[in-house]
From TrEMBL:
Classification via InterPro entries: AAA+_ATPase, ABC_transporter-like_ATP-bd, ABC_transporter-like_CS, ABC_transporter_ATP-bind, P-loop_NTPase
Family: Belongs to the ABC transporter superfamily.
Domain ABC transporter positions: 7-232
Record's keyword terms, sorted: ATP-binding, Nucleotide-binding, Transport
Protein name: ATP-binding cassette domain-containing protein
Alphabetical list of SMART domains matching this protein: AAA (SM00382)
Keyword field contains Transport: yes
GO MF entries: ATP binding; ATP hydrolysis activity
Amino acid sequence: MAAMTGLKIEIDCKSYPPLGGAPMRRIFEGFHLSVDPGAFVCLLGQSGIGKTTLLNMISGLDTDYSGRIEFHGEPKPRMGYVFQTPRLLPWRTVLENILLPLPSTESARETALDLLAGMGISDTQDVYPERLSLGMQRRVALARAFAIGPDVLLMDEPFTSLDESTADRLRDLLIAMLAQRPATVLFVTHDSRDAIRMAERILVLSGSPAHAVKDVSVGMNLDERLDKGAVEAFRGRFLAQ
Ligand SMILES: Nc1ncnc2c1ncn2[C@@H]1O[C@H](COP(=O)(O)OP(=O)(O)OP(=O)(O)O)[C@@H](O)[C@H]1O
């Protein structure tokens, strides 16, 4: 197995230019975060605090900040990013969307088809995304992120606007896929139950500029995470902290 990737994030300053005469908004200032190789970290925090901004900086989509983001283990890690909305290309079929970041080889095609089978949506391979439900589109987006074999997986509220049973299914799929192909995960959510069910570590961001107000180790095994009572008990303690 390839070396797992850890992250060292040191944002000296990230700000956005003013909109309509408002003052410059500093989103992060002196923000430091280290993530262990192979860790599953959930980021919680109120809307607008800067969670997506942080993922965009880690992914390299946003380079307009001062500071450093270093990766350990893999100097050029493969990065999977599941955006808040599935962002599938409407003029490409499901299979073509998944193949997009891959080389045009037979083995890449097999990987994509295996992922679709693993997601339980093999029958959608030749379908265009607009014909799919949101839950199916989210599965395709997850398959696309996994197709590259990511060392680092960034996930921005990937289960939002899904009914509870679809979200539960996708959560189980994610955990099963990570068991097969481990990655370092940063997962943004508003849902503390989601965080407790999946993460080893939960970081709560607050304030402006944003900083971590809680950094909690979950330390539950898989059986405990599947036990609703155990999750609620942990959540009670977590919220009271
Ligand atoms: N390109 C941009 N230009 C100007 N301001 C921006 C830009 N992108 C984000 N912002 C502002 O930066 C702040 C942080 O946005 P961000 O999307 O990172 O928050 P978030 O915590 O992910 O929110 P949510 O949970 O609602 O997705 C918000 O106030 C937002 O309006």
